[in-house]
Amino acid sequence: MNVILAVKQYVSKMIEESGPGMKVLLMDADTTVFVSMVYAKSEILQKEVYLFEKIDSGASRESMKHLKCITFLRPTKENVALLANELKAPKYGLYYIYFSNVISKQDVKILAEADDQEVVREVQEFYGDYIAVNPHLFSLNISNCCQSLRWAQPMLSRTAQGLTALLLSVKKCPMIRYQNSSEMARELADNVKRIITNNAALFEFRRTDVAPVLLILDRRDDAVTPLLNQWTYEAMVHEVLGIENSKINLSKVPGISKDLKEVLLSAETDEFYSENMYQSFGEIGTNIKNLMDEFQKQSKNHTKVESIQDMKNFIENYPQFRKMSGTVSKHVTVVSELSRLVGLYNLLNVSETEQEIACQSDHSNQLQQIKVLMENDKVRPMDLLRLVMLYALRYEAHTNNDMVGLIDLLKRKGISEDKRAMVHAVLEYGGRKARGSDLFRSGDPVNITRRILQNLKGVENVYTQHQPLLASTLDQLIKGKLKEASYPYMGANQLKDRPQDVIVFIIGGCTYAESKLVHTLNRTTHGVKIILGGTTIHNFESFLSELSTAVKGQATKYPARTGRH
Amino acid sequence: MATRGLTEVFILMRNNALQSRHIFSEQTADDRMALMSTSLDPELGIASTRSSTLPPDWVDGVEEIQFEASRIKRKMKELSSLHDKHLNRPTLDDNVDEEHAIEIQTQEITQMFTRCQRLVHQISNKSQQGTAQERKLSINIVSSLARMIQEMSSNFRKSQSTYLKKLKNREERSLQYFGPNIGADAALMEDLMGGDDVVYDRGFSSKQMQLVEENTAQVQHREKEILQITRSIQDLNEIFKDLSTMIVDQGSILDRIDYNIEHASYGVEKGLQQLQKAEKYQKKNRKMYIVMVLAVIIILLIIILIATKS
What is the rounded distance in angstroms from the CA atom of residue A26 to the CA atom of residue A67? Predict the structure, then answer.
């Protein structure tokens, strides 16, 4: 149950099957990302894959018959047509064709008819049809999958394909549970089920004692998590700087050197990152200081190269030294930029208020805090919007709800009309009516007592009070207490025991905060393995765009466009 | 990691397609059909494909390096077993043969490394003339080969230096054990030198002579051995420095496949821009040409004017 390993094994197998000799890897835009996430260039070069090309760059590629060509493509119509063209006038010696998903017989026939010169050696389906981000986290990089609160049809089929490919790659034929309150979750579950039954032969794996579970959730049930500022390294970098396929763009950082304009944050190659990605911002500070100290010690050793002994030591440790210096400069840049932005935008105060709104229920006090922050010029308008959206979700039905006043304040701060409309959009998307579960846990007596106890003890860390809703859902699922009324099974079979292998998929995107949660659950809960996936991985910005397409063309139930008067 | 093979289906379909095309073409073939299809000019076809089907000549170099690398690996294994033997199972007789073998092996390996390095350089030089894509290919190949060689050489260096360390340790130990012996030698020497005039007639007994000579020979031998190894390490350092420029750091953005592809397309775009710029310059050149022609005409006319006046 390691998605990175699964995709990596597929790629390794492709390379092995083509035997020795120089190879070129021919991919499309999607598979390029799939492969890049699991294989570093230097690593794949060692396996004699020396050239990487895109299938749609046909004209600029030259004929090189001495190369073997491994093609890894998604089975789309365009790709099949492009590949058929390629086969009619082959540029490389032999072709080993791999599709990332189930391909129809007609498409195979088109290719077979195009292959006059009999250059094709292998045609196979290798189900690496998703982006493996971390061992327990995958994404499909589909933004805005929800349109007018319904599935956009191509997105639905792509999501179902990606999800079944994941199941195949980790060899699981699961029982499917979905969130009853969400129509989209039901549709997706239905689609996945249909694909499994249509390809029953593929899904015949060795039976385990306890069947794996696929749980399909909807982002609409928990719109709070993507609204919050995060303070663990990975999540924070995504929130503040934005991670795109493990790459972050630092070109906007003032005074950045040319080498660091775009950097890679990958737990696979970067030891420091893999150790610290789930640490909180404060701990990162001390760890990076330790890293610096160690580095300084090493570099001091390296400055005095006098005797042959020194020289020898230097050369022996030089590759590690170089790698370390790259790591150090990267992380120091990233962390210093983070702390600069935190100070500049007053993110600590903002985050404290956010957490209070999400977890406490002191309405008048919180309203006051928001108003104070509104006065503060350092706070970004985006963060103010974030706060008002949170407030709207939290106190949707509160008697003294002052949304009108807050939106008016936003207007005075110069926030544009369509941004202000987001406050209503988030209510439409994730408000009371859309939710199937108790997001703020006000009714649960256990939680009430816990909260009172917490108030007595005092909170440990005010910035990390909030737990995503996924925490309680997974907790119930693992204990076998998840209510069947809210999360019914697709099909007749039901799980009697506690589940062992769980795959959670969130329609509308997951967040790195949830990824961290799953990571800790995997480590602390014995005998349970969880994989988390989402149509995409959100930060506040991407979530806003998701929201705006989701509610587009939807007749709003909130007639008071109160910001306007 | 489930997979599904479609190769058989594909080959079946391909054969069917080829067959049906055959039948179809036989039906239309009649006496008036040309033996070769006219659409393809045979001479042109061969001429144009020859250059592209033949692999560039540096490809042989790659195979050579790979072969050499496998040889180096084998040699290194042999050498390390020799080292072990030499260190752990000292025989009573002076193991000159063994030392000699080690020396030869070490030299050979170092030579092979230099050869590999030279070959890598040759590849990167030769590929300069190739097309853009060939160059890209060769850059990748060179970087991967360089990494391989570097890894091997660093392994080799490590084994050499541990051997060296052990050798030194052993010497120290032997000094410890046989210390008094050497001390006695020294005393003997002093005795001989200092007491020269006192007991002149004693002189060197042949036995003592032998002892002293043996000792110095041994010391010299050891020193030579150590020197040899440090020299081989130094040689390797040069190779190492040379190759390190060709290697991309692991974990950096340059080590991403997608970044490289995007960058390549960016490079192509940039190239196009450069070309367009060059074209502009070329056009400017044409203007220059016209200016020159006009200037010549003017000079001519002036000459004619002068000629007619005078």
Answer: 12
Is the Cβ–Cβ distance between A430 and A220 less than 8 Å?
yes
Q: In angstroms, rounded to a whole number, what is the distance separating the alpha carbons of residues A27 and B61? A: 28
Cβ contact, residue pair A60, B249, below 8 Å:
no
Contact A297, B218 (CB under 8 A): no
CA distances from A442 to A148, A455, B162 (A): 30, 15, 67
Query: How many other CB atoms are found less than 10 A from the CB of residue B285?
Result: 9
Q: What fold is seen in the domain A3-128?
A: Rossmann fold (3.40.50)
pLDDT at A443: 53
Contact at CB, A40 and B255, closer than 8 angstroms: yes
Q: Which of A87, A315, A322 to mutate to test the interface with B (most CBs of B within 10 A)?
A: A315
B175 lies within 8 A of chain A by CB: no
* Average pLDDT estimate for B271-293: 85
Q: What are phi and psi of A47, to 5 degrees?
A: -100, 20
Domain A3-128 and domain A133-222+468-534, same fold? Reply is: yes
Q: How far is CA A275 from CA A249, A270, B155, B274, in A?
A: 22, 9, 28, 45
- Which of B4, B253, B261 lies closest to A32 in CB terms? B261
In 3D space, the residue among A117, A93, A86, A97 whose CA is nearest the CA of residue A23 turns out to be: A93
Sort residue A514 into left (φ over 0), alpha (ψ -120 to 50) or beta: alpha
Token pair 């004619």 in the structure block, residue: B304
Please state the ipTM of this predicted complex: 0.80
What Å distances lie between residue A123 and A103, A126, A257, B11, CA to CA? 10, 10, 46, 9
Query: How confident is the model at residue A454, as a pLDDT?
Result: 62
Question: What token pair was written down for B226?
Answer: 């150590």
Give the other-Cβ count within 10 Å of B55's Cβ.
Answer: 16
Looking up tokens 């081989």, which residue turns up? B232
Closest CA to A426 of A396, A399, A465: A396
Task: Give the whole-angstrom CA distance, residue A52 versus residue A68.
Answer: 12
Domain A233-344 carries which CATH code? 3.90.830.10
Q: What is the pTM of this model?
A: 0.82
Chain A residues with beta carbon closer than 8 angstroms to that of B14? 112-113, 115, 118, 120
The nearest alpha carbon in chain A to B135 belongs to A51
**Which amino acid is residue B240, in one-letter code?**
F
Pair A91, A64: CB distance under 8 Å: yes
For residue B44, what pLDDT is reported? Answer: 47
Chain mean position to CA A322:
30
Compute and round to an integer the Cα radius of gyration of chain A.
26
Among all residues of chain B, which has the CA nearest to that of A269?
B251
CB A320 within 8 A of CB A299: no
Please provide the distance, in angstroms rounded to a whole number, between the alpha carbons at the two ends of chain B: 100
How distant is the alpha carbon of residue A55 from its chain centre? 26
Domain spans of chain A, in order of start: 3-128, 133-222+468-534, 233-344
Nearest to A171 among B2, B258, B261 (CB): B2
What CA–CA distance (Å, rounded) separates A300 from A95?
52
Q: What is d(CA B134, CA B58) in angstroms, rounded to the nearest whole number?
A: 11
CB-neighbour burial class of residue A325 (10 A; exposed 0-12, middle 13-18, buried 19+): middle
B147, B148, B253: residue with CB nearest A263: B253
DSSP string of A311-324, one letter each residue: HHHHHHHHHHHHHH
Whether domain A133-222+468-534 has CATH 3.40.50.1910:
yes
Q: How far apart are CA A350 and CA A347, in angstroms?
A: 5
Q: Strand A150-151 relative to strand A175-178: parallel, antiparallel, unpaired?
A: unpaired
- Taking only the tens place, the pLDDT of each residue in A125-165 is 999 999 999 999 999 998 888 888 888 888 999 999 999 99
Closest to B143 (Cβ–Cβ): which among A45, A122, A247? A45
